[in-house]
UniProtKB/TrEMBL annotation:
Source organism of the structure: Trichonephila inaurata madagascariensis
EC number: 4.1.1.17
Gene Ontology CC entries for this record: cytoplasm
Listed name of the protein: ornithine decarboxylase
InterPro entries (alphabetical): Ala_racemase/Decarboxylase_C, De-COase2_CS, De-COase2_N, De-COase2_pyr-phos_BS, Orn/DAP/Arg_de-COase, Orn_de-COase, PLP-binding_barrel
């Protein structure tokens, strides 16, 4: 759900409903370009729901999901932390007054310049999953608070991230040993079950693996007190696993492996959870073509003024499924 390429106009919902704003906008005969309506009240609702269902888990919003300034300002005011994956994302968050302590640099493979920048602006928390990263951090940001990212089962997720990020659990002893020799501070463990997870049980097995790593780290000489359970939380109500179901599994697993009295700080990295249902894209039907298949069946094709190189890039890169909702505003015109 990255901010659309081409930057369609964004209109903010206040007292009106989303479809009231859409209807009033498309009545303007000069309105042909695609535009987006953002329902900020929906984001506030999602924040309240998170605090109600998972009070022990601090949300660190994944900026890569949607970096619209209004979203960042709102979530900062609500008190979330921020998961940043680049120098630009860190700068965007710091520029609105967020303290560096509310940022985790959750990219296990960073350029040397980006690590140096994090050190200069006071961002200490950052992830790693390989030995090279440890040597870069030692040279450029030795005071960093490191979080080892492990690979977990993400086979039930729409977007699987394990091939790209996260070390195998069997490699953890070696990496922690290197960190110890370099005198680096490893404060905890992180994982990501994949974007848009379809199986709540993935969180349970991942949290259980983290418990074993905490115990192993204690033997090596690290006293960990930080757990990052990543993202994967749904942004819409759908036919698969619900947010509430995931919350129940996470809560039970945390109570078993990381009870409140253990003193471990727990965060997560929700992205689409906060913003997916809050944004509505409106496009204009600009052409219609009727033809026939080789079997003689009629085919009707509609053309809209946005596409996979713009707002619909999520179809290719995020495996998203979009739902067209016709909006009839007169007897002669209709919009999506």
């Amino acid at each position: 759900m990255k901010s659309p390429v081409g930057n369609p106009t964004v209109e903010l919902v206040t007292d009106s409903t989303v479809f009231d704003i859409i209807s009033n906008t498309v009545k303007n005969s000069e309105q042909e370009e695609p535009f987006i309506v953002a329902d900020l009240a929906d984001i506030v609702y999602k924040f309240k729901l998170w605090k109600l269902k998972m009070p022990r888990v601090e949300p660190f919003y994944a900026v890569k999901c949607n970096d619209a300034p209004t979203v960042l300002h709102l979530l900062a005011a609500l008190g979330t932390g921020f998961d940043c994956a680049s120098k630009n994302e860190i700068e965007s968050v710091l520029s609105i007054g967020v303290e560096p302590e509310r940022i985790i640099y959750a990219n296990p493979c960073k350029t040397r310049g980006f690590i140096k920048h994090a050190a200069n602006v006071g961002v200490k928390m950052m992830t790693f999953d390989n030995e090279m990263e440890l040597h870069k951090v030692k040279a450029l940001h030795p005071d960093a608070e490191l979080v080892i990212r492990i690979r977990v089962d993400d086979s039930s997720s729409i977007c699987q991230l394990g091939v790209k990020f996260g070390c195998n659990v069997k490699d953890v002893p070696h990496l922690l040993g290197v960190a110890k020799k370099l005198d680096l501070n490893v404060i905890g463990v992180s994982f990501h079950v994949g974007s848009n997870c379809q199986d709540s049980g993935a969180y349970n097995s991942a949290i259980e693996s983290c418990r074993h790593i905490f115990d192993l780290a204690e033997e090596i000489g690290f006293h960990m007190d930080f757990l990052d359970i990543g993202g994967g939380f749904p942004g819409f109500k759908g036919p698969y696993v619900s947010f509430e179901e995931i919350c129940n599994v996470v809560a039970e697993s945390l109570d078993e492996h990381f009870p409140p009295q253990c003193g471990v700080r727990i965060i997560a990295e929700p992205g689409r959870y906060f913003v997916a249902s809050a944004f509505t894209l409106c496009t204009n039907i600009i052409a219609k073509r009727e033809t026939f298949s080789e079997e003689g069946d009629p085919i009707c094709m509609y053309y809209v003024n946005d596409g996979v190189y713009g707002s619909f890039n999520c179809l290719m890169f995020d495996h998203a499924e979009v739902e067209p909702i016709p909006l009839v505003v007169s007897s002669n015109f209709s919009h999506f």
